[in-house]
Each structure stands twice: as structure tokens, then as C-alpha cells.
Amino acid sequence: MISIIWFILILSVVVIAHEMGHFLIARANGIHVVEFAVGMGPVLFSFTKGDTRYALKLLPLGGSCSFEGEDGKVKSDKPFKGLAFPEAKVWARIATVFAGPFFNFILGYIFALIIVGYCGTDIPEVQGLTVGRPAIESGLQVGDVITKINGESIHVWRDITLISFLNTGEELTVEYSRNGEKGTVVFTPEYSETEGRYFLGIEGGTHYESAKGLKLFKYGWYELVFNFRNTLKSLKQLVLGKLSPDNLSGPVGIAQVVGENYDAAKEYGMASVILTMMNIAMLLSVNLGVINLLPLPALDGGRLVFLIIEVFRGKPIPPEKEGMVHLIGIVLFFLLAIFVLYNDIARILGR
């Protein structure tokens, strides 16, 4: 039961941040917000303040911020103050749509600051080299701090872990710092038949540096960037077919992850539980921000595509045509949701 409460709390905070972004920027641009809702399905509780209805709905699986005239539809049956969505300037509408994902990144950064301020950050320092693996033969030494791999800046040890996990045998150019001097080595990870993936032969990830003063904001930013990269790389692997669709998780799978992490953290006290839940919330918030910016129908990114076309075109796409595209997107996402739900339940029952 406690795990379910944590799941609902995490999802609600992430969703509220997203919808609050749409809400605040819409209001700042004079756009009439018809309804601000947390959850989906039947309304449990609602009240009206000004011209906006605020609602709490039964299923804690999402939320909405609906605008007057959105998709060409009239939503209010009473006079209202402000502009209908299509009446606002195109850049005001772009800012309003973009604000949802952007607020997810802001929330993620806030959580990152708290986590890093309390736990510190994992420095990308080589703490050991596996004998017989390519890294030790390349000339890397214990104590080297890895700064770049194939031109990608390395800020935390998990950057190295992610690159190693996703490597499929590509050659790596590794830049490092040793006693203030820069160096570069080139090697190809070695495949392990036992593990079924490639390994660099570099050990580390246990050296944490505290984040005080201005370092807090720098290391908090690195934490956010890692989660952003992690999400993008995972999506890329999924599109390229290198990651199975079975790895996708929906609300049921997320709830299971929350429960497992809660059980693992609770024996170390409430502080550990809170930090663990914050870490999950940070990851979900960044995921939601990235996914919503994808240029797909029904997502914020899809809406932004139509608005950017309007900028170059000088006039909007007819609402009925845009609405049809988004409707197709909603149907496809509904089918995806069914597949993910089936996947989650099958995975749980398989255990």
C-alpha cells in the first residue's frame, strides 16, 4: 500500500509540473485556460476559480490543461476573459506548448540539486583496470579522470557505464586527465560471451565528490544531462531495434519499480526512501519532457511541428486537418498503451 502511495505521489508531482508549465505560460500570454485537471477519467472533485475549472480525476495516470478554442473547438458555455488559443500570437502558442516539457526539466533539475547536495556525484575516475581487457592494454592508468569518449563529454561515472552498456563493438577514442596533463587512447571493447555484451575493462563508480557551493549547481546540471542523454540513447536504441519493445514500461511497470526500490531503501531509513523516490521522480520527469518533445501526433512535439509550419507559412494549418492527425496519434498511443500494459502484467506474472 505504501508503495502505491509513493507511485501516485511521484506520478502526480511529475504530471502537475508538466501541466503547470502549460497553465502558467498560457495565463501569462492571456490565453483562457478552460480546465486544469490532475488524473484521468471521472471527476472526483472540482471547483471553479475565475474562468478556470480545477479538477481531480479518478485515475492518477495523467492530467490535462485545456485551452479555449484548442483544436478549433469551443469549450466554454459562458463568457470568459482572455484569448482563445488560436487567437494568441503564434510565438505565445509555441511558448505555451513548449512550457510543459520545459517545466519537467526544471523539476528534474530541482530534484537533481537535492540528490547531489545530499549524496555528492560519482566522479569518472578510473579506480581499477581488468587484466586482459582492452583498457589496461591501451595505457590507461588507475587515477586517470576520463573527460571524453568519442567526442562526448563525460561528467559522471554513469556516462561511462551507459556507453559501455550500449557499445556494440565500435572503437572508442578516450580522452583523460592525468595529474593535470591531457592524454588520449584508442581501443575497442571486448565482447563477453558470458554476459552477452561488450566491456571496456574499466572499474569505478564508487568515488563520490561532495557538491558544495557553486559545485552543487554544476553537478546538479551534470545529473540532469545524464538522465537526458540516457533517455535519448534508449529511444535511439529502441528505434534502431537494438532494444526490445519488451523493455518498455507503463504505469504498472513503473509502480513495480517504485515498490522494489522502496523495499530496498526502507531498511536504511526515511532519508534513503525519500532520496530514492526523488531519483525515480527525476528520471520520470526528464523522460516525460523528452518524450513529449518528440515530433509525433498528439504529443507537444507534434503540436510544435504544426506551429513552426505556421511560422514559415504565415497562416495556421486548418484545425480540422491538424485535429485529424492528432486523433490518429491518440489512437496509436492508445494501442501502444495496451501493448505496454500487457507487457507489464506478463512480466510480473512471469516472475
Strand content: 15-25%
Strand order, biggest sheet?
Answer: 6-5-7-8
On the 0-100 scale, what is the average pLDDT?
87
Largest sheet: 4 strands, antiparallel
Quaternary state of the chains: single chain
pLDDT < 50 stretches? none
Shape: elongated
How would you explain this protein's 3D organization?
By secondary structure, the protein is an alpha+beta fold. The chain folds into 2 domains: 2-118 and 273-350, no CATH class; 122-209, PDZ domain (Pdz3 Domain, Roll). The protein contains 9 helices and 12 strands. A 4-stranded antiparallel sheet has the order 6-5-7-8. A hairpin with a 2-residue loop joins strand 7 (172-178) and strand 8. Helix 2 runs antiparallel to helix 8 (300-313). The radius of gyration is 23 Å and the shape is elongated.
What is the secondary structure topology, with strand pairs?
Layout: H1 2-28, E1 33-49, E2 52-67, H2 90-119, E3 121-122, E4 128-129, H3 134-138, E5 145-149, E6 152-153, H4 157-166, E7 172-178, E8 181-187, E9 190-192, E10 197-199, E11 202-203, E12 208-209, H5 214-239, H6 251-265, H7 270-292, H8 300-313, H9 319-350
Antiparallel strand pairs: 1-2, 3-12, 4-11, 5-6, 5-7, 7-8, 9-10
Helix pairs in contact: 1-2, 1-6, 1-7, 2-5, 2-7, 2-8, 5-7, 6-7, 6-9
